[in-house]
Amino acid sequence: MDLERIFFPEVSFEELFGKNETIDIQGVVHMGAVEPKCLNRNKVSLVLMAVFAVCGMFAADSSNAEPYTVGLVEWAPWATAYVAEEKGFWKSEGLDVEVKQFDDYASGSVKAFKYGRTDFGIMMLGSAVDLIRKAPRYTIIYEHGWSHGGDLFILGNGLERIDDLKGKRIGTYSAAAPVSFFLSKVLKNAHLKLGDVELIEVSNTSKLNNSFRKGVVSAIVSYDPEASKVVGDGMGQLMFTSADFSGVIPEGIVVQNRILKENPADVQKFLRGWLRAVKWQSDPANRAAYLAILKRTMFKGTEYSLADIEELASGGIVHGTLEGITEKNQREVHEYIKELLAHLKENGHRIKSLNPRDYTATHMAVKAAKTIF
């Protein structure tokens, strides 16, 4: 790299240092056999400017960065990952991040993260808690938002009321903690408990719809875009959505502990890139561009119009202000985890720690958000 031409186009290094001196990219001046000239303050300032500029260039260069993979499924509020990728927010932080979209949630995205095939996972935070309580190899680093009407409880046409489900099968795209927690609140309205029904997990929502249509299950818990299809074709009755229980299904980011331990600076950069994407997509002036990104990435190859995608995006709430991000990640996420752990314990699951903070490191996101918003 020709530092002289970049930083001192009208001043030679010989004029600054003398003939037998060089400077490397770490800013170390190497003296030759000839005693160097004394540097005045202006020359020292120029040297320091060169050093810091070069260091900045290397820090922001993602070409030599360790590659990371983040996994998700087709759920519009999680498309922030594509925004960070498309707008170059991760790249400008010096990270090389690939977004990998799976067809299935439990058997696809969550399973891949569980076995270390992805480095970061975008998922329901209840799923993350479930993973951590079984094997503490992961950490929740951010609450991004929550489902707000995008998760649906649909009753089969052969039944009139929810309490008719006692002893029957309920199909769900995931039988793990976050969905069972939502379902428990639905059943409570009919004075039923999870033990009064049989849960059948079908992680592919299209196949879940088929099971519902064939009468294999009497009700389903699913999410859009597939969930509304069985209501639209008259096969089921929409009884409740996640909007009826505000904050019941929070969603966010979880990371492999090996990365958090070995490369905490990269985790911070990942969060910065993500939060810059959140800030960008939260600006109403960028709404059309945001929906266009979703159409050519997450919903590539589908027949959804921009209006359809707008409706799908409305199924979740994304925390888009510093106040909201701080409140959710400092306090509310821990209240949710506490309530969820109590739910799991009540239903016979083994809990090693009931302390919500053993599951999180969300302070990193709050710190990053304060420099961005």
* Largest sheet, spatial ordering of strands: 4-3-5-12-6-13
Strand content: 15-25%
State the CATH class of the largest domain. Alpha Beta
* Cα radius of gyration in angstroms: 26 Å
Indicate the structural class: alpha/beta
Number of domains: 3
**Number of helices, counting only DSSP H or I runs of 4 residues or more:** 16
SSE string, helices as H and strands as E:
HHEEHEHHEHEHEEEHEHEHEEHHHHEHH
Q: Helix coverage percent of residues? A: 40-55%
CATH superfamily of the largest domain: Periplasmic binding protein-like II
Largest sheet: 6 strands, mixed
Tally of extended strands? 13
Model description:
By secondary structure, the chain is of the alpha/beta class. The protein has helices at 3-7, 13-17, 41-60, 80-86, 89-92, 105-114, 125-134, 177-188, 205-213, 227-232, 257-262, 264-282, 287-296, 306-313, 322-346, 363-372, and strands spanning 22-23, 29-30, 67-73, 96-102, 120-124, 138-147, 151-156, 169-172, 198-201, 219-223, 236-241, 250-256, 316-318. Helix 4 (80-86) crosses helix 12 (264-282), helix 12 packs across helix 16 (363-372) and helix 15 (322-346) runs antiparallel to helix 16 (363-372). Residues 1-39 and 43-59 have low confidence and may be disordered.
